[in-house]
């Protein structure tokens, strides 16, 4: 049986209007309570690069905006109640389904947000809601890329935390010679999470970023850092890995970044995964198997975004999520996965719309913009079709 506290009929949220603008409304219906989901009352929301790309055919009039949120559980579907892991009042970080026309109340930039119960992350006591607002999508994306697409051994995460003693065992070597993985764009929010997950699996992590972020990525566990602007970046990585690198995660996924990843992979080839459709012109080696992922696929539901993002549902991605997140929950709730550096901005939803422009202009580097939903300012709007 589902459980819930008394909830209002409507809420404040950022939605798309008929002119394909994003606007703030106070009469938006709450999301329905689905059997496998929880509803959280949001405290903070976080901006992601994908939010800045919701333009043109991605904009669905009437749909709510955004993916990342943190807050407190106020309702639980019957399947979540039966599972027994979550409870009313739990502090949660999670990823929603922003700008989805098939489920228009599913976005995160709202006072109440629906989150998949199996992927809802219980925040550790020392984590603030502001920090939690940067966790959901980066964990889902990094996990799907590394352990679903690249096929790395997720079971190694079991050695990262002993569930009986809650002692950190992440420094234990799981193999005599741990595998090496390239994380291109290590200073991104997905990059810093990927680095941590790989280190928890006992792997060596090579990463690229600006030299000003070398200390940042090393603080998350990166073993070696390379300047992505160097004309010999790919060759230098290939030399440092003995011409034997097999795995590359590209957190930027542009033609230039894919070329560097392909240059870095060893002579026998390997696997490459991007975070959006990769440019086929850069798929230059037959011995490299390229792929790309979208974290939203893990819900297993149809997606109405334009091709190739849209889908009738990916049950294999849903099955992966169900099997994988039990590895993540004890790590996250015990505070063993660090959040990305956050930059708390003022003015709530109004300020968030300004933040979209900051990201589009390339003015944010190595930080995640987060906003407190209770904050207010005189309303504004941003062109979604720009």
TrEMBL record:
Which protein are we looking at?
A: GroES-like protein
GO molecular-function terms, A-Z:
nucleotide binding; oxidoreductase activity, acting on NAD(P)H
Q: What species is this protein from?
A: Petromyces alliaceus
**Keyword check for Protein biosynthesis:** no
What keywords sit in the KW lines?
Answer: NADP, Nucleotide-binding, Oxidoreductase
Pfam families per record: ADH_N, ADH_zinc_N
Cite the Gene3D superfamilies for this sequence: Medium-chain alcohol dehydrogenases, catalytic domain, NAD(P)-binding Rossmann-like Domain
Report whether Lipid biosynthesis shows up as a keyword of the record: no
Domain Enoyl reductase (ER) residue range list: 16-358
Spell out the SMART domains in the cross-references. Answer: PKS_ER (SM00829)
Give the superkingdom in one word. Eukaryota
Q: Which PANTHER family match?
A: HYPOTHETICAL OXIDOREDUCTASE (EUROFUNG), TRANS-ENOYL REDUCTASE STHE
Quaternary structure, per UniProt, is:
Monomer.
Q: Which family does it belong to?
A: Belongs to the zinc-containing alcohol dehydrogenase family.
- UniProt signal peptide: none
């Amino acid at each position: 049986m589902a459980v819930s506290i008394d909830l209002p009929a409507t809420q404040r949220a950022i939605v798309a209007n008929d002119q394909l603008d994003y606007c703030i409304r106070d009469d938006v219906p709450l999301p329905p309570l689905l059997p496998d989901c929880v509803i959280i009352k949001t405290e903070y929301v976080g901006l992601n690069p994908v939010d800045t790309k919701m333009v043109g055919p991605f904009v669905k009039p009437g749909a709510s905006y955004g993916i990342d949120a943190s807050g407190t559980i106020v309702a639980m579907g019957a399947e979540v109640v039966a599972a027994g892991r979550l409870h009313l009042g739990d502090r949660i970080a999670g990823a929603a389904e922003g700008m989805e026309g098939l489920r228009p109340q599913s976005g995160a930039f709202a006072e109440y947000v629906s989150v998949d119960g199996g992927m809802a992350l219980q925040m550790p006591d020392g984590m603030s809601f502001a920090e939690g607002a940067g966790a959901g999508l980066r964990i889902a994306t990094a996990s799907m890329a590394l352990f679903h697409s690249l096929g790395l051994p997720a079971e190694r995460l079991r050695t990262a935390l002993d569930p009986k003693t809650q002692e950190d065992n992440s420094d234990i070597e799981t193999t005599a010679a741990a595998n090496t993985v390239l994380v291109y764009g290590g200073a991104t929010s997905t990059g810093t999470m990927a680095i941590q997950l790989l280190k928890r699996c006992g792997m060596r992590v090579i990463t690229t970023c600006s030299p000003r972020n070398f200390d940042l990525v090393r603080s998350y566990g990166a073993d070696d850092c390379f300047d992505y602007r160097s004309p010999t970046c790919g060759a230098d990585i290939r030399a440092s890995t003995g011409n034997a690198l097999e795995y590359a995660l590209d957190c930027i996924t542009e033609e230039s970044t894919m070329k560097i990843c392909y240059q870095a992979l060893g002579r026998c080839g390997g696997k490459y995964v991007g975070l959006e459709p990769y440019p086929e012109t850069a798929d230059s080696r037959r011995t490299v198997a390229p792929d790309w992922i979208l974290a939203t696929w893990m819900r297993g539901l149809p997606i109405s975004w334009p091709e190739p993002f849209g889908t009738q549902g990916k049950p294999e991605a849903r099955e992966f999520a169900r099997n994988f997140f039990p590895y993540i929950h004890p790590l996250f709730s015990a505070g063993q996965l660090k959040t990305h550096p956050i930059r708390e901005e003022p003015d709530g939803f109004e300020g968030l719309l300004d933040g979209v422009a900051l990201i589009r202009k390339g003015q944010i580097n190595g930080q995640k913009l987060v906003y407190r939903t209770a904050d207010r300012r005189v309303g504004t709007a941003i062109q979604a079709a720009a």
